[in-house]
Amino acid sequence: MRCSRALSRSRLITHVCKPSIGRIVGPLSRVNPVAGWSLAVFAVAAGWVGFGWQGVLLAVTVVVFWLLLQFSRALRVMRDAAARPLGEIDSAVMLHSRLRPGMRLLQILPLAASLGRKAAATPETFVWTDAGGDAVRVVLKRGRASAITLVRAAGEESDPPGGTPPAAP
Description:
Helix content: 40-55%
Structural class: alpha+beta
Order of helices and strands: HHHHHHEEEE
Oligomer: single chain
Radius of gyration: 20 Å
């Protein structure tokens, strides 16, 4: 039985591989930060109304635990990416096909499995190169990928992801 796309994107390891789990886990991987902080404030307020200072203490404990989980996730991504050589990937074409505009750096690093080589400070540009000389150039604006370019070893550039593929010679 095949897992749903939401399960494969979230990298959830489970013995049960059903589409119903994907429907539950999928939306949780795309939570808006404003909604998350709003829920945290609501939890603290509900704790105060329901249980007084003990409820506030419980709500703050849960919020701090959630923040520690997020921090741990970010550190795990950075540790795994730092274990590989800087800016080297297995296949630039495969990485380019998986990248989408709007992705955050913490979403790009697990796909690349290494830290990118910084090409420019303004705008923030990172480059990953494979053994064949092909490279993927990602430009970040406000922490999100705004331009993703595949640079072939021969010097020709391809269209951004989702565009039309270059013509075959």
